[in-house]
Design goal:
By secondary structure, this protein is α+β, with helices and mostly antiparallel strands. Helix content is 26%, strand content 35%. The longest helix has 20 residues.
Length: 173
């Protein structure tokens, strides 16, 4: 199972990185983020992709001080990861996330899409207690309408859809 989980996570993160580099090849749906969750022993790995339009309201390099501040705030919110809360009993800790804000620098092509791709790696002291995650993306980014969650763990793979009223990801059956 460790190999399968590790392979899924590697593929999800590579695909997310490739999508960030070649956004026009992959889906980019305003109002929808994708979340990949992998649980492997004490490791909880999470990858997030969110359209720039939903995170900051634009998908181009900032053109004003206000847009620059908005971009910095969104990047810091994603890096801090406070919007993602594993159940407390699991004792999960994570260093700051790696955030790639693609399409917001001077090299961005005019008319291209902007995205944020984020990866987190938690270490959980009590992984057997890791039954759920609370996802606060809708509070952090109100323009977001839904989150498609792909989960891989010891019990196999699953998909869940979150919205403004459903914000908990169930990790165990």
């Amino acid at each position: 199972m460790k190999l399968r989980t590790s392979c899924f996570l590697a593929l999800a993160l590579v695909a997310g990185h490739a999508a960030a580099e070649e956004r026009h090849l992959g889906p980019h749906v305003h109002g929808q983020a994708t979340l990949q969750v992998s649980v492997d022993g004490p490791t909880l790995a999470v990858g997030l992709s969110i359209p720039g339009h939903d995170a900051v309201g634009f998908e181009h390099p900032p053109t004003s001080a206000e847009q620059t501040a908005t971009l910095a705030k969104a990047t810091e919110t994603l890096r801090g990861g406070t919007w993602l809360v594993p159940v407390a009993a699991a004792g999960c800790k994570a260093p700051p996330a790696k955030v790639v804000a693609d399409g917001f620098d001077a090299s961005a092509k005019p008319g291209a899409h902007g995205d944020f791709d984020v990866s987190y790696q938690f270490t959980c002291a009590n992984p057997e207690q890791l039954a759920s995650l609370e996802v606060g993306l809708f509070k952090a980014f109100p323009a977001l309408q839904r989150v498609v969650v792909d989960i891989v763990g010891a019990n196999g793979a699953a998909e869940q859809i979150l919205d403004h009223t459903t914000t908990r990801v169930t990790l165990s059956p």
